[in-house]
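Table 4 source record.
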Amino acid sequence: MKHLELSYEKLNDLLDECFWAERRYYNAAEDIQKTEWKRFLGNQSVNRNRFCNHIITALDQEEQEVDRLDVIKGFPNRDWHEVKAALVNPQADHLIEECIKQDNVVLELIAIILNDGWLPTHILEIMVPMEFQIKQSHIDLETLRLKIQKEATVSQTQILENSNPSDNMGSD
C-alpha cells in the first residue's frame, strides 16, 4: 500500500474519532443538568461536527472514499456501558473527562497526520485550526470549571451566613 493511501486511512481514522468526540460531547450535554455546562458541551459537539464536515469535504475533493460511521447520538442509541457509566457517575467532572479523553485521541491523530505531511496542503491546513480549537476548548473548559466552583463556594458561604442562628440572636 502506498504511503499516501495510508495517510488517507489515517484521515478516515481521524474522522471516525472526531465523530466519537462529537457523540461524547452531545451525550454529556444531555446528561449534565447545569445550564452553563449544557451550553458549553453542546457548542463543543457542534464544533466537532464542523470538523467532521471539513474532513469529509476534503476527502470528497480528493475523490477519496469516506468511511461512513453511523454514530448515533442520544440516549436510546447508547450502548449499555455508556448508560451504566452515566448512571453510576453522573457528575459533570466524570462526563467531561470522557470528552477530554476522546479529544486527546483526536489530537494524537492530528499530530500524526501533520508530522507525516503526505496529505495535500489544503487538507493539512484544516488540521492546524482544528488542533488549536480543540486545545483552546480545553482551556475554556477549565476556566468554566473554575468559575462554577467559585460560584458554588460563594453560594455555600452565603447559605451558611444566612443560616447561622447566633447572628440573628443579638438583633432583638
